[in-house]
Amino acid sequence: MASSENTVPDLQRNLVALMRQNNRAGRVVVAVDALDLDAAAQFANDFERAIVDEGTAVFRVSVADGAPDVRERLIAPFRAGEAFGPDAIAPADAVLVVSGRFLLRPEVRGIWNFTIWLESNPPIGAPRPELPDAEKHYLRTVRPKAAASVIVENSDPAHPVQVFGDFC
User: How sure is the predictor about 37, in pLDDT bands with cuts at 50, 70 and 90?
Assistant: First the structure.
């Protein structure tokens, strides 16, 4: 089931409000995960703009598949208020938005305060492309839809829709 269609800014503001329900202050780390790196990056950029609009300091990073060293290189220094990039030190209240693929793997799932999984489906009637084995394995074993804080159907990036998974 899906909610009514939103504009990109409306949906992003709603997602920031959801993030803030459990993360009102402090250094918050958000993952935007998708099989399509470009889609994840664009969505994360829009999410970053919504956080800026709220008046919070925000940092934006894209990472390689699975973010192998993201905990040590990025997350731990960000949370500690130490340098985590060239001249990047987060104030006490800040959000780090990370985009990439395979960010909900069990090895890194617990480092995120809030996670967004982007779904993307081909147009109705179009054949579904064959996924590479790594992506099939990720979907089957990690089940990112079940692991994410929020699911967004992003087949049309100009009209993303939050999807509410029924796991009953």
Answer: very high
pLDDT tens digit sequence for 80-126: 999 987 778 999 999 999 999 999 999 999 999 999 999 987 666 77
Q: Which of 31, 15, 12, 26 is nearest to 98 (CA)?
A: 31
Count Cβ atoms below 10 Å from residue 103 Cβ, excluding itself: 28
Query: What is the Cα 76 distance to its own chain's centre?
Result: 18
Q: pTM, whole model, 2 decimals?
A: 0.90
For residue 106, what are its two tokens?
């069990």
**What's the rounded Cα separation, in Å, for the pair 150 and 138?**
18
* Cα 131–Cα 36–Cα 96 angle in degrees, nearest 5: 140
